Amino acid sequence: MLTELENEIIALIQGDIPITQRPYLEMAQKLGISEKTLLERLKDLCDKGVMRRFGATIYHQKSGFEANAMVAWKADEDRIDDAGEKMASFNEVSHCYRRNPTGDWPYNLYTMIHAKDEESCREIARNISAKTSINTYSLLFSRKELKKTSMKYFPADDDN
Amino acid sequence: MPPIDDMDRAILNLIQSDFPITPRPYLAIAERLGFSENDVIKRLGRLKKKGIIRRIGGNFVPEKLGFVSTLCAARVPEDKIQSFAVSVNRYPGVTHNYQRDNKYNVWFTFIAPSMEEIEENLKNISRQTGIREIINLPATKVFKIKAHFNL
């Protein structure tokens, strides 16, 4: 599906790109390719939709979004697409997914809400509830970050 | 001193997505904002050091790389959360893990080459930790993924 070079490029840019004048030149030299080739391949990975986003990942808690809540919603299955679209339209909602209920867990829509404090998260959830007419939902505030990292897809070999 | 000033904010708002893919990306950012390349590089270095920027790089769609991803939740007694987290976090495919206030109180994302592998790993985690209530909630539809925050 992807070429070996693409895999190597992904392995490199899933980490941190250097904050220097010519970051791509430095990375290209590590890969033994020209800067021009690296830039072309990167654009291509974006165009193909392999790369969802290329840029800085912000640590929210240090940048004014202190609270985040995962909200699990129990939507009517026959109106779930409409509800999901409405939820996604909220600016404070960063992620919205449909997931199948399982066992004793009845929820089928999930949103991540980011705001300055917990009360604001609750208010946003109330607004979403009003807009979607879904009244069965649960706010799950994060109490502790146990791990947060980004996926390492193609770990580089230990040599060189 | 406030953690970030207006100049930092302008840079951060610009580089969360569509980081320039050009030979001198920091110059491109600087030109768009009317700053110098050196200012942008210095400030980004500082924001990185302060932990406001976690990383600058690519974020991928697992499925496009031949991987699958899911969200899992577990019901763990309070006094076992730490040791459970150690067992779960050992897997490189577990990228996010949070303690949340719910009967299911540990929530983690799992990325792997196949769902069978994830199911197998969850069984191993159960065996190892004695935690039996672990649910696997793969997404069946994505309505939104956004990681851009207007600061």
Describe this structure in words.
The complex is a heterodimer of chains A (160) and B (151). Chain A is an alpha+beta fold and 160 residues long. In chain A, 35% of the residues lie in helices and 26% in strands. Chain A has helices at 4-13, 23-31, 35-47, 80-88, 118-132, and strands spanning 51-58, 67-73, 93-99, 109-115, 137-148. A 4-stranded antiparallel sheet of chain A has the order 3-4-2-5, covered by helices on one side. Chain B has a 4-stranded antiparallel sheet with strand order 3-4-2-5, with helices on one face. The longest helix of chain B is centred in the last third of the chain and has 15 residues, at 115-129. Chain B has helices at 6-15, 25-33, 37-49, 81-89, 115-129, and strands spanning 53-60, 68-74, 94-100, 106-112, 134-136, 139-145. Chain B has 151 residues and is of the alpha+beta class.
Task: Give keywords.
heterodimer; A: 160 residues; alpha+beta; Alpha-Beta Plaits; 2 domains; four-stranded antiparallel beta sheet; 5 strands; 35% helix; elongated; B: 151 residues; 5 helices; 6 strands
Give a topology summary.
The complex is a heterodimer of chains A (160) and B (151).
Chain A: H1 4-13, H2 23-31, H3 35-47, E1 51-58, E2 67-73, H4 80-88, E3 93-99, E4 109-115, H5 118-132, E5 137-148
Antiparallel strand pairs in A: 2-4, 2-5, 3-4
Helix pairs in contact in A: 2-3
Chain B: H1 6-15, H2 25-33, H3 37-49, E1 53-60, E2 68-74, H4 81-89, E3 94-100, E4 106-112, H5 115-129, E5 134-136, E6 139-145
Antiparallel strand pairs in B: 2-4, 2-5, 3-4
CATH topology of the largest domain in chain B: Alpha-Beta Plaits
Beta-strand residue percentage of chain A: 25-35%
CATH class of the largest domain in chain B: Alpha Beta
Strand count of chain A: 5
Strand order of the largest sheet of chain B: 3-4-2-5
Cα separation of the termini of chain B: 17 Å
Q: How many distinct folded domains of chain A?
A: 2
* Radius of gyration of chain A (Å): 20 Å
Q: What is the SS-derived class of chain B? A: alpha+beta
CATH architecture of the largest domain in chain A: 2-Layer Sandwich
Report the structural category of chain A.
alpha+beta
Can you give the helix content of chain B as a percent range? 25-40%
CATH architecture of the largest domain in chain B: 2-Layer Sandwich
General shape of chain B: elongated
Low-confidence residue ranges of chain B: none
Largest interface (C-beta under 8 Å): A-B, 73 and 74 residues
H/E element order of chain B = HHHEEHEEHEE
User: What summary fits the major beta sheet of chain B?
Assistant: 4 strands, antiparallel
DSSP helical segment count of chain B? 5
